[in-house]
Amino acid sequence: MLFQGSGVAVVTPFDEQGQIDFDTYGKWLDWHVEQGTDAIITCGTTGEAATMNDSEHKAVMKFAVDHIAGRLPVIAGTGSNDTAYAIQLSQYAESIGADGLLVVTPYYNKSSQKGLIAHFTAIADVVNIPIILYNVPGRTGVNMEASTVAALSEHPMVCGVKEASGNITQCADIARLCPSDFQMWSGNDDMIVPLMSLGGSGVISVVANILPKETSELCHAFLAGDTKRALDIQLGMNALVHQLFTETNPIPVKKAMNLMGMNAGTMRLPLIEIQPNNEETLVRELKNFGLLEV
Predict the structure, then answer these.
(1) Which of 57, 140, 248, 290 could cross-link with 52 by S-S, CB 3.0 to 4.6 Å?
(2) The one catalytic residue among 134, 213, 228, 255
């Protein structure tokens, strides 16, 4: 079992020149350890890996592994729409000591389901650390069907799936079709409890960038059988969660972190600053949650 609970999809901080701010990144990683986060996911969607060149991508993965130094599992985002490049990144992540890989479905190419099986199998055949499949059709243009996940779950290196389709019926089908030891994490912060009710292991989270303790508490309350406590936390944070997705992730969460003094910095084009009307509603919910002074 790779991890249970709250894995944070860590934002990548950039300085005023648009370069990676490793000092700030290291402080965040230490904070997540202190706050009870259960795993670090680096170079995912929230980390803007799509704008990193090869050397930057590898540097961020290595920094996270070295800085965490075994305190938490570190899962490296190594997906690509180019299978050969995904293999290269995945093998590199394994060589530096990553505990697992998060591999997104190939974007833009719009592969068939058989093509998805071939893509993930090609990666899984050449690594010896667990792979989490990542299904996020709203970002990639392709949905990985439950039957495809089930076929891939037979591979010994494929340990689970981050499900961000928002389709609870599909999640239920994955739970029904896959082995009992195959893990599923919510990729939607507003659906953690529903997905865990289907046997899910927790979440790979955006909101955990600003609410690490609460997100972990939600997951562990559910795992401990206190479903009422888990539901109370879920419903209590959902208004804020919704504000983190009024624009393309990570635009709102980076704005929230900057407002909170966390020095997340700028975004890289083509992402731009949050629109004023969305910033206004985000600020309101941050104040409602006590994260900003009223």
Answers:
(1) 57
(2) 134
Q: What is the pTM of this model?
A: 0.95
Which amino acid is located at 251 in the chain? I
Q: Are 220 and 10 in contact (CB under 8 A)?
A: no
- Domains identified in the chain and CATH numbers: 5-224 (3.20.20.70)
Secondary structure string (H, E, C) spanning the chain: CCCCEEEEECCCCECCCCCECHHHHHHHHHHHHHHCCCEEEECCCCCCHHHCCHHHHHHHHHHHHHHHCCCCCEEEECCCCCHHHHHHHHHHHHHCCCCEEEEECCCCCCCCHHHHHHHHHHHHCCCCCCEEEEECHHHHCCCCCHHHHHHHCCCCCEEEEEECCCCHHHHHHHHHHCCCCCEEEECCHHHHHHHHCCCCCEEEECHHHCCHHHHHHHHHHHHCCCHHHHHHHHHHHHHHHHHCCCCCCCHHHHHHHHHCCCCCCCCCCCCCCCCHHHHHHHHHHHHHCCCCCC
- What gap in Å lies between CA 12 and CA 148, rounded to an integer? 31
> Has 162 been annotated as catalytic?
yes
Distance in angstroms (rounded) separating the CA atoms of residues 257 and 244: 11
User: Which of 162, 254, 255, 287 is the catalytic position?
Assistant: 162
Strand partners, 185: 162, 202
* Residue 132: closest CA among 178, 181, 77: 77
pLDDT over 80 at 35, yes or no: yes
Tell me, yes or no, if 85 is annotated catalytic: no
Query: pLDDT confidence of 294, banded at 50, 70, 90?
Result: confident
